[in-house]
Amino acid sequence: MAAWNLYRHRNSDGSSKDWAIRSNSDGSITTRWGKTASCLPGVSNRSGVRQFDIERQKQAKGYVFVAEVDIDGDGNVVFPSKSSVNTSQRPPEPDATPESVPTPPVEALYWTIDCHAKQSIRVELGIEVRRLIGVIQSVSDQQSEPEQDWDGWQQFIDATLNAETFELSGQIKSAHGVLPWLFLLALKAKGFKGIEIDIATETARDLSVDLKAEQDVLALFGTDLDSIRDTAEVLGLLKPRLNLAAAMSDTDDCWF
After folding, report:
1. Cα separation of 150 and 108, whole Å?
2. Residues 6+ apart with CB under 8 A from 169
3. How far apart are CA 85 and CA 81, in angstroms?
4. Which tens digit of pLDDT belongs to each residue from 173-206?
5. 31-66 pLDDT tens trace
6. pTM attached to this predicted model
7. In what order do the strands lie in the sheet with 108-115?
C-alpha cells in the first residue's frame, strides 16, 4: 500500500508545486516537495509533530489532496494506479482528536528554488546572486564564524553561471550560521518573475521575508534582530533606523 499522501498547490500563472508526507515507524514524519514533476527533490525529517496537523496546515494554504503514492529514496513519485488520482478526495480524519503536541523549536531550515524564468531575468538573477554574496562576504568578518561552511554558496554560483533554468534544494543548519538564511531571504524579497524560492522549517511552516515575525528562526542561529540588524539593513531586509542624534548634530539651534 502507498505510504505517502500527495498534495498539490496551483499557482495563478498556471504552474503548480507538490508536497508529500508520510509517517515513519519510529514516530517521525518525512515530507518531500518540489514543482509538479515525476520527482520531488526537497526532503526533510522531523519528530514531535503529527501528520494530521501538518496536512491541515498545508490545506489551509491552498494545497489539495491528490492521491496516495509511493516515493523512492531518490524522490521519484509512483502512482499505484490512475484510479488513485482524485483531486476531490481527502485523507481520512482520525476518529478522535488526539492530545495536542507542543510546537517543537526550529532545528533546521529546508529550502528550494525553481528557476524557470526567461533568459533576461535569469541573467539578472545571476548578477544579484553574486552581488548579495559579495555583500555578505564584506560583512562576514563581523559575524562569528560558522562551525560548518554552507554548500549553497557554490550551488548558486554554479547554477547561475550560464543563466540556464535550474532547480536546487538543500538545508540550513545552525552550524551554518545565519548568513545563508539572510541570503535566501534577500533573494526571495527581490520577487523575480518565474523564480520561486521556498524556505520552510522542519514542521513545514513556510517562512516570510519579515524578520520580525521569525524570532524562532533567529533563535535557531543563536541570535536576535538587534544583533543582525546591520547586516539585514545592508541586504535590504530591514529599513535603516534614523539616528536622530546624528541627524541633529549638524543642525544649528533655532529659537523662535
Report:
1. 13
2. 34, 41, 42, 43, 110, 111, 112, 113
3. 8
4. 899 999 999 999 999 999 999 998 888 886 667 8
5. 998 888 888 988 888 888 888 888 988 888 888 888
6. 0.65
7. 166-173, 108-115, 195-201
